[in-house]
Queue: 4 jobs
Job 1
Amino acid sequence: MAVSLTPGTWTLDGSHTEIGMTVRHAGISKVRAQFDEATGTLKVAEDGTADVNTVVRAESFNSNSPDRDAHVRGEDFLDAENYPELTFVANGIEPTGEVFDLTGELTIRGVSKSVTFEAEFGGEAVDPFGATRAGFSASSVISRKEFGLNWNAALEAGGVLVGDKVTLDLEVAFVHQGE
């Protein structure tokens, strides 16, 4: 089944969206976190192709550990004061089925790299309040070092405190705004 969305502009529904990440900690466990503030648009053309533009507030990083959150928001990692936004822009998406690749430019800390997410279309439906909604799940693994997030600490037993690979997991909802 091909993804078929109503043409027009869709806006990201922040209250029904989760932008999560997971990274290996101390070589033995994984730490999960999310970004609590994001905005975005999905523009669907009559031919079914689409563009996505998303902005995530670096200051909204949340791992439920205030000390860790301050460290990640600081100069060693996101440097939210100087780079307040993480962005993702994908142009000319042509989904071929319910599961498809979503490729675009991810920018973190002023560094842009092409990233491909494995995406899944959850469907389109009208909610009880009359709004037309669409949902997607997407996942990708990036190297944090490729984005200039190089801070680390050596462990006494060998290895490092923070792994390089970061898994990005997205559960996103969009609301149709019309043409």
Job 2
Amino acid sequence: MTANKPLRDQQYMADNGHDTDWRLFRGDGRAKTITFPEAPPWRRFGRYEDRETDASHRNRPYLIGPQEADVVNAALLLRRPLLVTGHPGTGKSSLAYAVAHELSLGPVLHWPVNSRTTLQDALYRYDAIGRLRETNMNRELDGTAPPDMGIGSYFRLGPLGTALVASESPRVLLVDELDKGDVDLPNDLLNVFEEGEFEILELARLPEDQSSVRLMTADPGQWTEVVRGRVHCSEFPVVIITSNGERDFPPAFLRRCVRLDLPEPDENRLRAIISAHLDPQDDSAAHGTPELDDLMQAFLARRARGELATDQLLNAVFLRRGGVDLDAEGLLDAVLHRLARTL
């Protein structure tokens, strides 16, 4: 170890519940039984069956400046989509979970966008082939028509469709990385956002005696009643759209959004974020500690030469506090990678 490493000594690590040897894998081919240490707070997950109701792995502390918070409030009051831009790692997606948590609006409906995404995917899906296959299979088994399972069993609302179901409180819908979608997708969304409703054509065509149909939502185990094929919100959902700025959006779409550009956090904000995530009962990180100072300065120096994400600094601090015996530069080399192609 070099003399300028501000590392904790063996006694400090033992007193704080850390093993003096942080290495789990040694690469020597010798099998052993180990106990994994506790994961970082942002990488802890509940049981699978509890995840839809217990989103504690997402409800991490989220710090935002008063000016940015005012923009969020403007979108909430105007019932307009919030278009959030900023460098990767500035907390764009996390903002949706923070709003849902603080306002007690339930689980976030997540719509990740890619180049193959369509509006139809987000509204609903109808398994017409599955319905036909099941009908034919049952007839082949006993030669009779199967009991009517209900057409609603073959529908499932997508995240946007579920967000537009009438409810007492609005749902939070995260449209993640809209700029990765097809160029026409923002325009396709305009009518749905303006009207707050959409039509399921397959249900709208049913006879009058089948006008009311129960179908599944994007929430596991939850169903909703749809009348004459129309889904109409009573409260416009809290729509948070993220973009990494890979391309521009149409002016008509931008006019209908409230826009928020998240800045990169400065040193004071970074220290507060670290304290909130790793020391929720102790704000010493916000005031500076020897084990953090060298990492902070190295991170800021590297970020000035190219884009780096805040969660990368959190990872480095977590490893340092877990006893990883690397200096600041070596530790950052392990977890920090430029997000931009060039400096």
Job 3
Amino acid sequence: MMFWSLSGNSQKLDGGAMFGNAPKALWSRWITPDEHNRIPLACRCLLVKDLDGRNVLFETGIGAFFEPALRERYGVVESRHVLLDSLADAGLSHQDIDAVVLSHLHFDHAGGLLASWEEGQPPRLLFPNATFLVGAAHWQRALRPHARDRASFIPELPGLLERSGRLELVEGEHSRTLGQSVRFHFSDGHTPGLMLSEVGGVVFCADLIPGRFWVHLPITMGYDRFPECLIDEKRAFLADKLARNVQLFFTHDHDCALAKVQCDERGRYGTTAEQRELSGWQAQG
């Protein structure tokens, strides 16, 4: 297996929302906000080539499906579909992807499934040859969103995925499509049924741990539905990954794709051996 970190469209979001109840005096030392209090965020995807002969893409980022007014509202920086360019840099097109694994269906993780916005045109799925993997519990949330996070979903997306005939709902540690090669963990603190993928000694942290600074246990996002649950999940998750030497892949960290977990004598978690990007990186095993 070989790993690539692929850039998708980037965002600028309110730093206070991204760091929950952490004070600005603390989080602004980690990421400098702009004049509107926004911080830069990646929407990074993980490409694994030759995963049992398949090209597998973990998430698709926010993409370019928003109309211009909404793109500005949600702080999307680029108007083009950046993930398609990143795939081309890795020698592939969206048509070459055999499976797309989605931790959840919030638009900043699944919007890249859709073609770029065109005036007067309905949303259209890309990746015509891929199986789409979504956690079964989260799928139910996407079909019936709560008022708190309804705006985070793309209303047309579940129907498009169902009609593709290539949707697999994952209920346990392994899926029909990817077999034993990918192990799934589940979390409920950010959104019900968040699905975290572990492959080749790397785990895609999704919104359980958006980046390095959220590895510290008390740090959560204002977008998390149940912060105390998330902290408990994060504690168990990090202890397991540290014990097994599984590295963390970050989707939203603007300057780090991969890192190892470390824990100091006080029990405070952090990261080490940070890598800004992966390009043909050889996985373990």
Job 4
Amino acid sequence: MNCVTYVDLHRHVSLDIEAELETALLRLAPTSGTGAAKSAVSRLLRHQKLRHPLSVLPMMVHAIETGDPGPAVPLSAVHVLWWTSACYLDDLADGHGTTASDSLSQNEALLASVLSGAVLPIQIIRSLPVSAAVQVALTAEIATGWVVGTEGQLTDIDGDADGATRNSVVEAYRGKSGGPFSMITAMAAILSGASDERVELWREFGYIFGILWQLFNDQEDILSGRNEDLLNGTVTYLLTCVLEEAGTPGAREDVLGWCAAARNSEEARAELTRLLLAPAVLDQYTADLDAFRAEAHRLLTTLDGDAHHVPGMRHLVDHAAQMLLRTHLVPAPV
């Protein structure tokens, strides 16, 4: 079935989102002075480019509710600003800081991330031609999104592979990735004038989509060769599949040993990657991906909405739920 995909939509509205971001940045420019704040946030936005154009997600929600994606362009700008801040802070928490040392120091980027993630989104909300009650509700969603996302990220940072399960990792994913997506889908539903019941359904959809997108990101990390999760000692869902597949206490201890060594050893990362891509592990991962995809589609069926725009959201769900990893990608032993 042909439908307008999220990439298609972004191609048509990207200039509108950029214009909204530029307007937001102008609010930082003082009537006199150096304009250092605007400059720092601009440089952070250039440095922390998002790899996928998911900024259109609130526009897709608004279109499903009303038939018109346009009024949610400001929320797309909020989405970009929030994730720009969150991704930088995530890099900082992982010990990476900023690699743009020639144009943006770590201290500048940290201060810019505060403006990007908190101040500018609130200023955008306050500029919307909506009632004070809607502005209050939208601002509350930003606060909640930060709390839930931070809680999930802290859980992720403190993750202990020895005690991790698939369920415990899903709870962390529901916070660190699901929280921000539930924030923006709920905001779009509120802006559209949807009922409280529909806002909560969109919030739950955002949580499930966030889990799917984190599982998608985990796969991309392996396929790209970045292996940031192994280098950072991150307890991923795929890793818990390996731990639960380990047949004996001895085999489990071996996996945990490779996890501990993977931060500093290329050999350990290669061995752990081989275990992550074992057929039984990938079978479990595929089954769980399918279950989360089915739940996202169930929510969309319940929500229904504009028939022209729902297929695009279903397409996005299917894209996020792809099984990209294959057993034949197992690297040769080092």
